[in-house]
Write a structure and sequence with these properties.
Largest sheet: 6 strands, antiparallel
Structural class: alpha+beta
Shape: globular
Helix content: 10-25%
Number of domains: 2
Radius of gyration: 24 Å
Strand content: 35-45%
Number of helices: 9
Amino acid sequence: MSELIDQSELQSRAARLVEAARQAGADACDAVAVTGVSLSVDVREGKVEETERAEGDDVTLRVFVGKRTAAVSANRLDDPASLAERAVSMAKVAPEDPFAGLADPELLVKEFPVLELLDDKELTADELTDIALEAEAAGLDVDGVSKSGGASASWRLAGIVLATSHGFEGSYISSRYGMSMTAVAGEGTGMERDYDFDSRTFFADLDRPKEVGLRAGERAVRRLNPQKLSTRTANVIYESRAARSILGHLVGAINGAAIARKTSFLKDRMGEAVFAPGIRVVDDPFKRRGAATRPFDGEGTRADVLEMVSDGVLQHWFLDGASARELDLKPNGRAHRGGSGTSPGPTNITLMPGEKSLEELMTDAGEGLLVTDLIGHGVNGVTGDYSRGAAGFWFENGKIVEPVSEITIAGNLNDMFKRLVPGSDLDNRYSSAAPSVMIEGMALAGS
């Protein structure tokens, strides 16, 4: 499948842009050339609803004139000189940015690690259709499922090249395969829906379509006839899929750009205990077959595996070049390309598991709310105030009693992090990975 992407052509585009920018008067510059191809199939009720194939190319040139910067993008590279001249003209009238610039040459990747990023298996539309239909059929076979909300299967291939005026050139190709199924249970106003999915770098690692469909159907049926809870304080357990959102709130709070802007509730907490002892959060750009695995970051900077939280203590921010310079720190290879420049962010981030299973967490909690679905984005990144709509199951004596919905969970992330207890059921498939987590004493607003 890798023959679908011509890396040599991408390298040529990036090199031509860098040279054109130099000729146009840029003091420094970098160029990113990307290309991709994808194929997806959507089915519903045993019939194909849509088959979509997409192919695209894009180049972005970023130039620096002193401390002024500008960027231009194009889908085609017919005239590199014209694109470069436009970028340099824009930069000359842009406001100065004291933190703008290319990465320090000492921090650039010199030797590229060998990573498992590419599976050469190309799937046809017929093969994707069979996968989606199999997943849908398995979901519909679950007793209580009344209809399908649709199923899909897809693959994609992406290539990227980064070249800079101070000598860096790097490239890689990555693949991704996925499938999903949504099941609807019940009838009329009593209908409930849920879904399941899987996404992997290598096709052979995907769950079987029947397993995905079966889980979607079972999840939908479990949600039938939900009850409402009265307002109370209770122990809350987020199942693994929902717990990734808690990890996401941490990621946002330790983003170097938010720290520099002083818009994070953790802005003054470096070196302090923000979680209970024993909690570890690891960011690994080299994770085997990881969704965000990469040999270099958006600036060509080398990266290491970072323990962002060690034994409960916050150890690092995510830093690109600009945020590091603003904070007077050293970049740590977490630059992401986007729009006209870079922004800091994680790679494969994992909340490391604890020792107790989900069932054992429920037993320890006695009674409480098991969250399986979250609604809305009610989190204040400046204060850490937390308020999210939720649905799931009420449990007593460690056993599920009934499904519940229309609940609001409220608290503050500073306190929630301190009380967080991770389970052992780590779902390690995605770029943001977490086990189930228990948080004691959350405020629940119900009927």
